[in-house]
Specification:
- Chain A is 63% helix and 0% strand.
- By secondary structure, chain A is mainly α.
- Chain A has one domain.
- The relative contact order of chain A is 0.16.
- Chain B has a five-stranded antiparallel beta sheet with strand order 4-3-2-1-5.
- Chain B is globular and about 45 Å long.
- Chain C is globular.
- Chain C has two domains: 32 residues, no CATH class; 154 residues, Alpha-Beta Complex (Nitrile Hydratase, Chain A).
- Chain C has 245 residues and is an alpha/beta fold.
- Classes of the chains: A mainly alpha (117), B mainly beta (107), C alpha/beta (245).
- Chains in contact: A-B, A-C, B-C.
- Chains A and C meet through helix 1, helix 2, helix 3, helix 4 and helix 5 of A and helix 1 and helix 2 of C.
Chain lengths: 117, 107, 245
Amino acid sequence: MSVTSNVDLRPIALLEAIRSEGKSWDVIAPQYGVTNPDPPWKTSLVAMCECLAISGAVPTLDRRRAEDELAQAVYNDVPAPERQLLALVHTMLRRGLVMEGDLADRMRSVRSRLEAA
Amino acid sequence: MKRTKAPHARKSAGNAPARFKVGDRVRVKDLPNMFYSRTQMYARGVSGTIAACTYQDLIPEDEAFNQEGRLEQYYIVRFRQKDLWEEYPSEKDTLQTEFPDRWLEPA
Amino acid sequence: MQTTHQHAGGGHEHKAAPTVEEITDFEVLEIAVRELAIEHGLFTAEDHRRFTEWAESIGPAAGSRLVAKAWTDPAFKARLLADGTAACKEIGIDWAEPTGFGTPSDYMNFRVLEDTPTLHHVIVCTLCSCYPRPLLGMSPEWYRSTNYRRRLVRWPREVLAEFGLILPPEVEIRVEDSNQKCRFMVLPVRPSGTENWTEEQLAAIVTRDCMIGVALPRPGRTADVHPVHKARHPVHSSPSMRAAE
């Protein structure tokens, strides 16, 4: 393991808000009687990781090293795959690939879209 | 998408000679880390045996920086666990892992 | 993996499969970051769609079929050991998918590790949890944990014991740390009591854990069972901590 951190480990407000809601799949799926072990967005997340690796935006080793550190330091009480999602987004935000404000705005419009459907 | 050729397709590139063959004794060098080294700390300075020649490819350090880099042979090296870890209790157990040519030297 | 289909017990009504009715922030976050990434040119929607389809297509059944075929067909087994990637094509698995040159995590250099009565293999990736996904699907969380990755290379017999696998000292345990582009799978020893079994019967006892090397196949064992831990264990707990998360 490298001596210096691979990613800025300071918590990010937007992600902390999501985490504190506690709506991980292992909690909500049983509430609805759904026995699928994975949330429906898991494969999309996997695909996103591969695409980011191919484009070089977030190489696999970088992403996994950041994920290991973030899992230990910041998201250690979040179950997989939510932990993997938060770690990826955290990494992308710290790299400046997306901006926290833009992401918050987009989340609001995505939610409106999904709730209207 | 970045169009790099798969190592499978590079098998007979013939770019660099393989310095080692199956059965050779080799030692893992302890080169200074350049960010993305995949050579584990536990293996550095340890001697093992070439178990297999796998493929030829860009060394990871070059590929990570997206350069037209050097092609070289990769090998699976087998170690006795007793040589990797202090006080490993079993004589029989082994560990094998993969290295590019430049990380190895004759033991 | 699609939503499960559950039937009302004994009734004539065909209930719709249960779905999670609420839209979680995690679901919204995944969509939002993906849309922004595409808009910023980090990848295309087309590439993402192709990888999503690929991710949905993979699972451990392919690996089970591969092992069962190797157990029943010696010529196939020889081809598998000589060139794992090519042999996979015989069972319909193409390591070149979905790009034509594989994925940036799985590559195209697949090798099978053949167990014998005196040699047992177990697979790990200490660096990042590389895994033969075209044959086994997504890696389990315990395999991805730093707990497993750090401890298996150093104390393999202890970690295997935590999975319930204890091997006698005369059996060599060989850890394969897949730190480069090769991807590995264990070809376990065919257990006794399976004489004259069909490939389908054999495949049913070759579970994912058997192909990673933390379990041995045997008649009647058709599922991997792990204790489910809700709490996260910090990596720097005592060495006696269980390997499974």
